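Re: export button greyed out
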Amino acid sequence: MEIPRLKARGESSATKVDFAEYTPELLPFLGQAAAVHLEVAENLARALAAAPSLETKQGISYAASQVLATQHKLVAEIRALHADPDALMRPFAEALERYRTLATGSDWRELLLTCYLSAGMLGDFFEQLARGIGGDVGKRVATLLAADAGAEELRQLLQSAINADPQLTSSLAMWGRRLVGDTLLVARSALANVDSPGSAAHHAAEANIEPVFTELIAAHTRRMDGLGLTA
Amino acid sequence: MEIPRLKARGESSATKVDFAEYTPELLPFLGQAAAVHLEVAENLARALAAAPSLETKQGISYAASQVLATQHKLVAEIRALHADPDALMRPFAEALERYRTLATGSDWRELLLTCYLSAGMLGDFFEQLARGIGGDVGKRVATLLAADAGAEELRQLLQSAINADPQLTSSLAMWGRRLVGDTLLVARSALANVDSPGSAAHHAAEANIEPVFTELIAAHTRRMDGLGLTA
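Workaround output, generated via the alternate export path:
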């Protein structure tokens, strides 16, 4: 069996961590990935409804259909394993509802930024977990999540919104920073499912996992930079 | 050129009407069809966000992705004709916004019934117009709309909601009846775009078009009956 390793995203080889012992079981992993993507789809649905113009609604609809396609493929993987997608997603519903409340924002543009940033961070994280899980399913899911469904559409929509109203920059920059912590908590909860008797002590685990989160935050910062939201 | 005729849906040949003179131009037609389907998608998005359980959200997500796929194909037909989808949809935005306010309902189950019934009636109507328009595009669009995107998923979700709460029957039955008038107005507005100099007088047009609306209402009643909502 290959030893699953965290894909190094940065230049530094220090971000290479043996992720194997924190890798969740396949079915709970798929359930959480499907629940997280349903949450992203729901946020996109709310942004679509809240967006004021037909043009923006149309743009969001393209991102939404890509995220839905990804979510439906995750559900199909669960079904192919003869498991019940609803039952596997349900344990994550409450935490995601809490996240939804925190991540809604005060405006459709903040909500859209939530969709873009949370899909990015959580997509990256679940892609790495899928790589760690390996096997046919893990590889397929990693490839699926690597496609960053809807990300480019969302980036363009956000860029247009910022161009149309440069005043937005500071409030969106603040909003993006606020999101990081809550989104990392959702990611971390996927690791909490690992309950193998041989797992390292909590302290060691934190130290081992830290580079993964450092890299997630670095990718988040690159997304923010890409939108000029670093001020 | 073939003479476009209303597809007879009932048994009676009396419902066969020469629809040609009320048929809108291709581009405004595609714009309105795309706008109407974006509206249905938006209502589904709101229902997805409003639905209380993960299972229902998941179910609605399947209907939503089918409606989005249909809407995106309509937009692709517009683009293939080198026209601007946003500009062609915009004239219908205000009327659809008014419709949205009327058709929201007081509860996610009423909103879901709106999605099912309005997609059904408007889908049927635009399918018939597409048939009247004819040509390659008209035929492709008629086939696309004949597929009733998401209808079976929505019917099942509504049936489950009614089974879970039989008290719903009377309020949903009333809601379904209330929707008819406003939905027919949206359909009728597609005909109002016809402004050909040789068009029949308003009075004659009403008489000619009536059988089409009678058949739309009959199909609506069959959908209601199918859900046990006739009481």
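The mean pLDDT of chain B is 86. The button fix ships in the next patch.
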